[in-house]
């Protein structure tokens, strides 16, 4: 087994070697500009882009004309939210979202609020799920857009997108879905789910960084957007700029592999995840699962280890790449807003670790991780005044802390 | 963020980790921070003849918080009560090469030292006769 171990696959994934292989000719021999209409270099590049567009459209059951390439999911989210707001603001100023969305959705909405948007942030239940009825009840005659994520990047909880899509359709409100963590990992069908706009990217699914897509519905209804980048009128005028052909070809290949292997891969990844969860919970006491026990991304495991602080724990297992909801990983003193929105106490939010199992994770790595986590948690609990107090039978919630 | 070697060393080999019985003679205990804030430090000193003969800590917090309190126990040993009160958080920052986002860890360690000293003084005052208290207060 090779160290360090990569178990942070929600953050990014390595490129699949088959993806790299597909991309390589497009850097050197097939380097043309896909917008060049008058020579074979351009046609060759365009062919690559067209193929990728079809591969991507097929995975989500869309038409290839509905795929707009962007630099990544953050840009897609920005284009969807700002583009819709600018285009439809005459119709209304109200947007509905949830409190556990990614910052790439929340931050553009914050900036739209300064421009007059009225945003409703729906709360989620304690497993991290949006209630479709809350969406229905929040809709007013001023509502122009609903933006709800498919699967959460921290806890992996999968939202009831189809129900929300149905409500959006009924009420005639556009529905944007940030599906960055879900596309390629769980089945996504924009027709069946009633999605009008959808953001996702390549690097979360073993493709290259720097390329993403926004699905923009063309029929029933035809969604129109004000572009954020003007220029040569590429991507049906919604996103100008010369297309990064090698990245797009890689994106297409990555998507194709996900489609071909999803069924099998899900079983394998889920088995590893379940073993990790079972191994950790049986090796230590007082560990708590964050998120939904079943409606969750197959590779996701988010656990709070009571009485130890997340960043200290990461330091104890530094040969394993993981992520923590602890505040110490950010510049503020606030721990994960996602966990806080679930009602997880700040103490347990500080103690949370996110494991992300991926295509290249092995059973051996999972066993190693269980063993190392148990050792690090024990080391830190021996050092923890909270663990000592809990063992003495003191209820920590009744202690008067000198907060700072 | 990369940790300094000194922080890593204190994390892997914490000095004076453990606890004294709070009610023991000459023991002062300081507990600062809150679980909601992600760090709680418990620092204890054992004083004999106005000199700190032993110190112990337990910390819930990040690596820098653990290192700050571990270092504090090393520095406390052998100091008089007054000398211990002079330890400044900036000295801890310097010794451990803490980055700006971790300065609050050193502040917490200084607070823990002060809290332990105050606890010791309070206990010492109630244990001694009124004349002695007045004398030490005047010194």
Question: What does it look like?
Answer:
The complex is a heterodimer of chains A (404) and B (139). Chain A folds into 2 domains: 5-10 and 262-393, Aspartate Aminotransferase, domain 1; 17-257, Type I PLP-dependent aspartate aminotransferase-like (Major domain) (Aspartate Aminotransferase, domain 2, 3-Layer(aba) Sandwich). Helices cover 40% and strands 13% of the residues of chain A. Chain A has 13 helices and 13 strands. Chain A has helices at 17-23, 40-59, 73-88, 103-114, 132-138, 161-171, 190-193, 245-283, 310-316, 337-341, 346-350, 363-383, 385-391; strands at 5-6, 67-70, 94-98, 118-122, 143-147, 174-178, 197-201, 212-216, 287-289, 300-305, 320-321, 323-324, 352-356. In chain A, the strands form 3 sheets. Chain A has a 7-stranded mixed beta sheet with strand order 2-8-7-6-5-3-4, sandwiched between helices. A 4-stranded antiparallel beta sheet of chain A has the order 9-10-13-12. A two-stranded parallel sheet of chain A has the order 1-11. In chain A, strand 6, helix 7 (190-193) and strand 7 (197-201) form a beta-alpha-beta unit. In chain A, helix 3 packs parallel to helix 4. The radius of gyration of chain A is 22 Å and the shape is globular. Chain B has helices at 5-12, 63-76, 81-84, 89-96, 103-127, 130-138, and strands spanning 27-34, 39-48, 51-60. Chain B has a 3-stranded antiparallel beta sheet with strand order 1-2-3. The longest helix of chain B has 25 residues, at 103-127. The N and C termini of chain B lie far apart (47 Å). Residues 131-139 of chain B have low confidence and may be disordered. Classes of the chains: A alpha/beta (404), B alpha+beta (139).
